[in-house]
Design brief:
Length: 353
């Protein structure tokens, strides 16, 4: 039997509520498909920061370097500034493990109402650059408290950094419906984007089987709402991809639905799987978080570890519960709990509880 070692970081807020759902689904899918998961759980979180002064230990990356994958719930809690929780945990993991692709698929499931009228046949993937771009470490705040106070941050786009994510997106598009949309802002204002566009054009020329278009980020955001069915793969810089992926999730019904995979495609390091949403302090502790994003993320993990059939089974079970039942968590207008919805998915997966 194949066996995998997974590092679980439930994190904060609803991260702790949706991670058990993902774990139960991994176990159930594993039982069906002859895969065994072993877990090591880490308490890296804002609570740890408040108790010990650090989100994770200094050798945190070394402790999970040899796991087959990481699953992260969410980080962030009131009382701890976000820059502490993010630069202290999430960003070092993504960067330290060179997870330069953030893969964020979305689809409108049958039985789920999209807030967008007529949104049907929506099935696309945002490929977000995940380690550079607008989220650079160059810059800071100056003259705090003075009248001339200012903040600067240099966006850093490197040729290798853009090339590798664009190539990943082109390959993915070639395996899907053959269409790639590049999110840009090339109309002369932002210096980095004509550079991005040049690399997209060069790499697209090497992959003629993919139909490549570029759209300005502002117009693209509007088209995500007006005509979301036209997209297949969308490649975007770090910040553009962040915004587009929440927008895409909203088009599909809400941000609690959306999964994400932070991938190190070369597999030099473990990849990290986490739903798109955050720790949702406004609903944390009530047992009503939508587990769909986390469960779908578990499917991405299965796929990454070579279990495509098991992954399809999990996505199919989610789709079946949404199509056959009225079970919905409150963010989708229902009264189901996290545990109740997850139980239905487990039942659908075949009595593996
Ligand atoms: P958020 O995603 O936590 O919440 C936004 C809104 O969506 C809230 O109203 C929340 O209740 C709702 N929501 C999110 N996920 C849901 C789910 N699964 N089910 C039902 N409702 C859900 O974003 P935010 O409010 O901008 O950020 C809150 C905290 O999370 C901050 O500290 C932020 O830094 C952090 N954050 C972390 C990650 C991550 O760990 N990957 C991602 C985004 C935000
Ligand atoms: C996400 C989150 C993070 C990001 C934040 C919390 C830094 O919004 O994973 O989408 O912007 O990458
Ligand atoms: Mn985000």
């Amino acid at each position: 039997m194949t066996s995998h070692r997974i590092a679980l970081v439930p994190g904060d807020g609803i991260g702790r509520e949706v991670t058990p759902a993902a774990r139960a689904v991994l176990d159930a899918a594993g039982t069906r498909h002859g895969v065994r998961f072993r877990y090591d759980e880490f308490d890296w979180s804002c609570e740890r920061y408040l108790a010990e002064g650090a989100m994770m230990p200094a050798d945190g990356l070394d402790r999970v370097r040899h796991h087959d994958a990481l699953f992260l719930g969410a980080v962030g809690a009131p009382g701890v500034p976000d820059h502490v929780s993010l630069w202290g945990l999430l960003i070092p993991l993504r960067r330290g493990f060179r997870q330069y692709v953030n893969l964020r698929p979305i689809r409108v499931f049958d039985g789920l109402e999209s807030p967008v009228r007529g949104a049907r046949d929506v099935d696309f993937v945002v490929v977000r650059e995940n380690v550079e771009g607008e989220y650079s470490e160059i810059g800071g705040r100056l003259n705090r408290g003075l009248p001339g106070e200012l903040a600067v941050q240099e966006a850093v786009f490197t040729r290798p950094g853009v090339t590798r994510v664009v190539d990943f997106a082109l390959d993915l598009a070639a395996r899907r419906r053959g269409k790639l949309t590049s999110a840009t802002k090339s109309n002369g204002i932002v210096h980095t984007m004509p550079f991005w566009d040049e690399i997209v054009a060069e790499r697209a020329a090497a992959k003629p089987e993919v139909d490549v278009e570029s759209e300005h980020i502002d117009a693209l955001a509007a088209k995500f709402v007006l005509d979301p069915g036209r997209y297949d793969v969308v490649v975007a810089s770090n910040l553009f991809g962040d915004i587009l992926s929440d927008l895409a999730a909203a088009v599909a019904g809400g941000i609690g639905l959306a999964p994400a995979a932070n991938l190190n495609p070369e597999r030099e390091f473990p990849s990290m799987f986490e739903p798109v949403h955050g720790s949702a302090p406004d609903i944390a502790g009530r047992g009503i978080a939508n587990p769909i994003g986390a469960i779908w993320t578990a499917a991405l993990l299965l796929d990454h570890l070579g279990h495509a059939e098991a992954a399809a089974g999990v996505e199919g079970a989610l789709a079946a519960v949404l199509a056959k039942t009225r079970l919905r968590t409150p963010d989708l207008g229902g009264t189901a709990t996290t545990v109740g919805f997850t139980r239905a998915v487990l039942d659908e997966l075949g009595g593996a509880r």
